[in-house]
């Protein structure tokens, strides 16, 4: 485990997230987190909220290291949460690890 202020929580098995898809982690009183799985089985975690109009990124299309918002096709980097030019904005990222076949999320 990483030495930081966060606690790591086991969320799901890798196969519970569809390839090039997402799974939502509900958080009471906070923005939900979307877990994304790339075609090559890397996992990323972002707030499930597009910086443009608040669309659910978990409903977007995943390709490469990017998710396209379903509302207006804003392209958001899964690695940084940064919108790709010419779009502007940022979605918070969360620490996530794949340990064996289990997805772990750092929660505060």
UniProtKB/TrEMBL annotation:
SUPFAM superfamilies per record: ISP domain
Keyword 4Fe-4S: no
Cited InterPro entries: Rieske-like_NirD, Rieske_2Fe-2S, Rieske_2Fe-2S_sf
Keyword Protein biosynthesis carried by entry: no
Superkingdom assignment: Bacteria
Record key words, sorted: 2Fe-2S, Iron, Iron-sulfur, Metal-binding, Nitrate assimilation, Oxidoreductase
Location of the Rieske domain: 8-105
Protein name: Nitrite reductase small subunit
Source organism: Jeongeupia chitinilytica
